[in-house]
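Task card 7
Instruction: Convert sequence to structure tokens.
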Amino acid sequence: MSRRSSSRRIAGTAGFTLIEALVALAIIAAVLGTIGTVIASTVKGTRAIDQRLALAGTAETLLAELPARGLLKVGRQSGELAGSRWRIDVAPMKVPGGDPATDRFVPMAVNLRLQRADGASLQVTTVKLVPRSVQ
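Output:
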């Protein structure tokens, strides 16, 4: 074998072909696209959790500021707090088997609705026992 043919063979096998390079670039592009999609959905999920936590904190504040159970009255209150519009409805609950003549306490449903300007909303319902004489 001559020196010329062996150097030609070595030069012909060194490096990547154009097709191999394009395939590698296509694989890299697909992987980066998938990673970008995962990151975008993670950011979106994190933002949704942040909104929920902010609404939950506002709801907690509003429920903590409710009057003591002896002062809680039937009716509706509304307002705005921390960029959220809120409404609280307080209404007596009908309890099967309860006797209004002898029961000392009346269960009151407290329904809180919160909505932020961006459309995120939260609804919380709880029950407060109110002394019968307060109604």
